[in-house]
Write the structure tokens for this entry.
Amino acid sequence: AHFNEHMLFLGTEKYPKENDFETFVGKNGGITNAYTDMEDTNYYFSVAPLDHDDMEFMDDGDEEEDELEEEQHEEEEEELQEEIEENYSAEEDNERVSQALAGGLDRFAQFFIAPLFNEEAVERELRAIDSEHLNSFTSESWRNYQLLKSTCNPNHPFSKFGCGNYKTLTNGGNINGSDAVSSGGSSPVPALKEFWKEKYVTENMKVCVLGRASLDEIQKEVEKAFSGVRSNGSGESEKIDVSDAIFQKEHKNYGVAFGPEHLGLIREYVPLVEERTIKLLFATPPNDDPAIVESRPDRVVTHLLGHESPGSLHALLLEDGLINDLSSGVGLTTSDFSLCSLTLYLTPKGMAQRDHVLSLVWQYISLVKSTAEKNDEVMEGYHEELRQISKTQFQFRENGDPTDFCSAAAELLHEYVPEKVLVGSSMPGPYNATITKAFLERLRPDNCIVNIQNSDFEAGNDGEYECSAASASWQFEKWYKAKYREVKIAPSLHEKWSSIANIDSRLHLPAMNSFLPTDFSLRSEDPEAKESFSEEIDYRKEMPKLLLERPGLQLWHKMDRTFKVPKTHLRLFLTSPDVYRSPRSMTLMRIYVKVLEDDLNSYIYDASIAGCSARVTCLPSGISISVRGFSEKLPHLLDVVTGRMLTIIEEMKSADHSSGLYLKFDKATKNLLRETKNFRLESPYETASYISRVLLEHNVWHVSNYIAELEGEIANRHPLTLGECAKVAEEALTQRLMATFLCMGNINERGAHHVVKLIEQNFLHQARPLSIEEIPKLRSMKMPTKDEAVGILGPGVQNMSIPLKIEEMTYSASEENHAVEVILQCGAEYEMGYQGVALLELIGQMAYNSAYNTLRTQEQLGYIVSAFTRKTAGSAMGFSVLVQGSTKKPQELEDRIENWLALFREELASMPAEDIAKEATAVVASLLERNMKLSDEVSTAWGSIVSAVSLGSFYNKPPFDRHAKLAEILTVEGNGTDDNGSGSEISSKRKNIMTKEELKSHVLKLWDRYFAIDAPERRAVSARVYGHKGQSDYDANIGKPGYLSSYEDVRQLKQFLAQWPTAPYWIEKNSK
């Protein structure tokens, strides 16, 4: 199934070129992808609603393509174009299906009508599957998931190896090369074709299409495109169970996945990262069982188990410093079973007291069970509360990403009739005591796997515990080599957990939620708002207004008149020079935020369940506070959060080692150390991005700086204290500040002025406003050209195409992959201007598909391949090419990237100017894409507002129109977008519009100036990360000219480098 998913993208009978579909989608401003789940494969794509002058999107500059094939394509495209023009010539623009969608559907449908399964592509795509497997080899989620699969009933299909690799798809041997025969390998294509023939039929397929045309026109296009999909003639059928079982679908399709011999277990597992968790997995019925669908007993059960209010299991364990977090839910569900889980993220103290923790877990489960047995009214109250929350959330649900919607809806069509797809599980029926009790009955020790994940196992720290698998020998899972051992739960422990005599008096079920909103009135419907409403104003394009500006404070506001939901977003940024002044201050501020979150948790939890949320984040330039949700409760939530941010500081100053705050501080410090050390275990490509950032940005503290503050010699001599944490937080939050505040959504100007008073009284009443010199500014380093590098590093780099290479070894000894990111700097945003930035966006749009097709599909260098524009903090622009794979070491990956850069220059030169103009139209469509929901509009506006904070009073006008101005640059003669894309509107406003030929010329000039190997202003850096097999190569490069192998090397080099100007490309002086 997974291999089939890959192969369908590599050509069909009607469109035989391998990258045809992805090229078409890319040139029309869209994306495409697919994923294979346990029982289905989901394919999806999107395009912008574009109508080009022709439907010929096939030409990619390959002059050697077979002429007959080319003529065939042209005939087919002409026929399709004629059909479109015939069908839609009399239709209005907003009624007809765009040519982009029509062409996309026609190509997409061919996956399911006549794929080629080209033998020439098989070897390459097998390698891609293998690379994908190796890419996830060190992923804890994949390792855990496959361990669960490998230890279930081997006769159940859930036990299969989910991803597949080269060997499993070729019967263990090679299908090419000198040992193809002797190795016993065989091509998977015959089996693949049989699989496709059996599974890819109308009875198994559901399709969702979303477009701007009328439903009738979309339906015509879908029927035309998909009419050739085969039927197996069987029709769709649903097996009806006539037994008396409450859960009728359980085990009906494949038998029992987790039977008595696979349950009642204690399983211990050694993770690759520092981690301590206990997960209880209970075998439960599938989510689509009729009894579950109707009453959703899993929802109320997991709601209570995972609740975080006072008296809950979460609150008790958190208060005692035993856990960092707790969650519950049905995380895995198939057509004939599901697994309900309760996961505890333990502190070292909690893992050391695991027997006590698990005792409390089973006590709390017993409390929920006994309540369900004795008091239906209480359980019904919780159920009705959740129904009300679901109803409210559904009633005011906003549009999401259209592509995500289509992907999800197509999957839901397998579970719900079409008229129920939008509602889905949002509207469960009334409480059913019988079904809820039957579900709760599954929460037993003998129906459970207690999975203990502890990095300390590796050091042999077994300890003496009742809940332990130490008597068993270690084993290794077949596919991901996860180290584990397991034993049956001892009868004595089973009895202790099953028969709870006494429940801790601190445990009790939660009160009803006081945060449930009841006032859904809209400020846009108030009489005064109606009076000021104008039909002539497009409120979607209206930007936030500056309501208040004085030293140290800006208040921005926009009342929503577009999305009409009773929700508000409050965004506050407190700019402070004290947060990032040293690794120690940043570390202490991160700890402070963790302590605050811990302290506020039980209060904010009810708000989050009811649709409100609050988050405090520590950033290098200050503190970000975000409060959002239903408008009625939001001012109170903001007051509680911001007020507590200061009162907790006063309590921290006087807290002793026995206080609850000290326990929270100690836990936060240990968690931050664990997270920081685990950061070193990120994927190689993520590490490459990080180490390049350390070089490209001026003042960046390295991860080793933070670790040194938390453990080791410096930490021992100068330990972090609760009092010092309070002092640093107080300085950052009360002394030198600039507050930027945005109120958007269901809030009027009066409401905005009310909530800003909370900010003034909590933060600004004693603070001194920042001067422009005090505002933190991040700067980008100017990488050297070849000649400059020779001057700094000596003649040893003269013959290197990339004279500067920063290298790192992966921290994990089991990491198979290497990664390389080549970064080519263009210069400062301000120097590039709107035109340079727009052209760079266009190059990024065109480069991605080319790099992916060449480096991944053709050369099979790795599963992760990308080409993209890269902006670094400090307003420097650049272009990056990234590859991660296991078969080639970094030097060869770098060489292949350089080779592709040269090939892509040839592609650009041979590409017709019209094709480049079409690519530009796709970028314009993306830039002008409308916000689909209120939160999108808020994020767009907030991004513009905070980008101007550091520029001083002369230049701090937010660039709300920057996307429109970039779109203007790329809107060329005769290439406007559709009526909704505003392309024609842009064209009419501009006087000097580029021709298509001028656009191509500008693209080539930019490329030749900055990116070509012999470009005079080429400023290239290669970030290389070696997997464990590359240790000798890494060691051999240490000390060589041009190679930076340590953080100290980077610091020494920065002394010789200049910095780019920080002004952004959109800057302009404020009008007075």
